[in-house]
Amino acid sequence: MTNVRIGVMYDRDWAPEGLPGFAREAEALGADDLWVVEDLGWNGGVSAAAVALGATERIRVGIGIAPAPLRSPALLAMELATLARVFPGRLVAGIGHGVQEWMAQVGAAARSPLALLEETITSVRALLRGERVELAGREVRLDGVELTHPPAEVPPVVAGVVRPRSLELSGRVADGTVITEGHGPQDLANARALTGKGGAASDHTLTVLAFACVGDDADEVARTLNPSIEGHAAWLGRPPHEVFTVSGPAAQAAGRIRELATAGADTVVLRISGPEPLRQLKAVLEAARQN
User: Fold this and answer.
1) Distance between CA 212 and CA 196 in Å, rounded?
2) End-to-end CA, the chain
3) Which of 91, 212, 214, 244 would give a disulfide with 184, using CB separation of 3.0 to 4.6 Å?
């Protein structure tokens, strides 16, 4: 298969106490990445990343994603720097707009979401590089802040975004872009074009989250994925049959990962539905290695 990283998401609905064991099993199966989620009312992304990193030795852990309105750039950089120093080379930090309804619930809705995201990512990256940051922005103010212990190996900071202007912003200020579930190869081509328009460097990465269900019974796979697909289709504004999934028998699922890789994905992260997610992960990893 094309040189693509294959990862797995620890779903937000799974109990936090199951994360250490799941992370160890995913690592043992040979997954490249484990991604944790930060959604309002579920789990904290930085704490979950710390748990996963502490339970494993090799696997890379991604935070997908920290909402900029909820996070002070200085505090977020401090947290990320701690993880990056203790677990060098194993962290990817995702930052995004956050779901606007959730941000409003906690009184954190940004006046300018684009400005807030740009200023947050720019500040966090600079702080992680050990720079002294002076910024009087539209949304962020930092008056001579710097980290005492910046990491020797700076983790990539990626933007979890969907809309065209946000994708351009990601190309301008982030190390990579995270594309949410349901997006297929054509969407990735469009995302590459938009991040390129924003000035993305040649090493700007593209991480794709994907709904996944691996099994030989087509009807059962469809039933399992249907709740996720229907809800996400409405959010994306497209019919359910256009929501891309990594699903079906293991060989077919591996082929769907290959489609994403061919379209420009550097990492594909599976959000697995249905019973025995680790068994499903094992099946698709074995099928992918045969290609």
Assistant:
1) 28
2) 5
3) 244
Cis bond upstream, residue 59 (ω within 30):
no
Alpha carbon distance 248, 257 (integer Å): 12
Per-residue pLDDT tens digits for 97-146: 988 899 899 998 889 999 999 999 999 999 999 999 999 999 999 999 99
Structure-block tokens of residue 122: 């720019």
Other Cβ atoms within 10 Å of 193 Cβ, number: 16
- Tracing tokens 């920290």 back to the chain, one arrives at 66
d(CA 74, CA 107): 20
Give pTM, 2 decimals.
0.96
For every residue of 199-243, DSSP letters joined together read T--TT-EEEEEEEEEE-S-HHHHHHHHHHHHHHHHHHHTS-GGGS
Tokens of 56: 């494993």
Residues contacting 149, CB < 8 A, separation 6+:
81, 82, 85
